[in-house]
Amino acid sequence: MDYKGKTALVTAIGSFSSMAVIGGLKKMGWRVVGCDIYPREWIAQSLETAAFYQAPLARDEEKYLTFIREVCLQEKVEMILPLTDVEVDVFHRNRELFSGEHILVGISSPETIALARNKFALAKKVAASEGLGKPIPTVKLSEWNRKEWMGVYGSRLILKPWNGRSSSGLYRVRGEGELTRALEEIHEEGREEEYLVQPMIEGNVVTTDVVRGKDGSFACLPRRELLRTLNGAGTSVQVFRNPELEQMCRKAADLLSITGCVNFEWIEERWGNGRCEYRFLECNPRFSGGVGFSCLAGYDMVQNHVRAFYGLPVEEENRAAEGYLAKVYRDVATAGEGLEENKG
Q1: C-alpha pair distances (Å), 231 with each of 88, 137, 154, 161
Q2: How many domains does the chain have?
Q3: Over its length of 344 residues, how does the chain's per-residue pLDDT go in tens digits?
Q4: Which of 183, 199, 215 is the last residue of a domain?
Q5: Do residues 193 and 206 share a domain?
Q6: Is 40 found in the same domain as 91?
Q7: Domain edge (last residue) among 159, 180, 199
Q8: With 0-12 CB in 10 A as exposed, 13-18 as middle and 19+ as buried, what is 178?
Q9: Are residues 162 and 212 in the same domain?
């Protein structure tokens, strides 16, 4: 399909995934418009866009939607690619505003987004499905029996909101003292009904970029997160191939009826005899912060994401290479007299 002459709006271009998304779109022939809550001069990625707009906070939903619609009208946008969770949620709730104007919003169906956002419902659905490994026990904090749980799983726990994003509000509890403090904080905020309890499972976090077409065509690429930011974005990773894990990802993508590119997170639980088991953690229904790693390794997640939303099958032949990859940071002049001559 020829995408030349089409314009895409990419939101939150200051985020980790933006360079891969912008670069992938431009390689396909798209004209790319970007927006972010910060000024253009603060965002290095703005240099890669044909036009840039400073956006209001997506939490101010009415103001944000008015802004997005005005940008789409002015720039003749045909596809929107939201990059952050809060923006995905806004477009999920208001997608009819854009479908009526024949603008594609690059997120999965309402049912898929709603399930991915509900960590309790998703954990139950995964636990009831065959072929997705050993489930992680998950209970609501309001229904949790502390004494019984400790007798089975001990005092190393994860407490997290059922609708949390990017580790927001998550507690990693490593003993009775930390548990007591966490429960006190949750109680003080009146959030007991929001929280889930899981055992803390030791092991590598494995993020798998997954892309699926509406026809069921599928590809994925896993990576071990070796170094991560506090909100869970990998900065140094090991890309690898594992037929068993990749088949589990296919089953999970079918189970959730994924469209386009999302990311699944797993815990790689290992034992001394060399065996390991992958425990499904969650689905983030957007590009991962490290989607550029998959593209660099040899599978273009961005191009195939777009193909999926235009009703085309995704490429199932995955020639990605295994190896170690890391993000690099560099200084860029975005504005200022005399800075141009100092580049390089």
Answers
A1: 17, 23, 26, 15
A2: 3
A3: 899 999 999 999 999 999 999 999 999 999 999 999 999 999 999 999 999 999 999 999 999 999 999 999 999 999 999 999 999 999 999 999 999 889 999 999 999 999 999 999 999 999 999 999 999 999 999 999 999 999 999 989 999 999 987 778 999 999 999 999 999 999 999 999 999 999 999 999 999 999 999 999 999 999 999 998 877 778 999 999 999 999 999 999 999 999 999 999 999 998 877 789 999 999 999 999 999 999 999 999 999 999 999 999 999 999 999 999 999 888 889 988 777 655 54
A4: 199
A5: no
A6: yes
A7: 199
A8: middle
A9: no
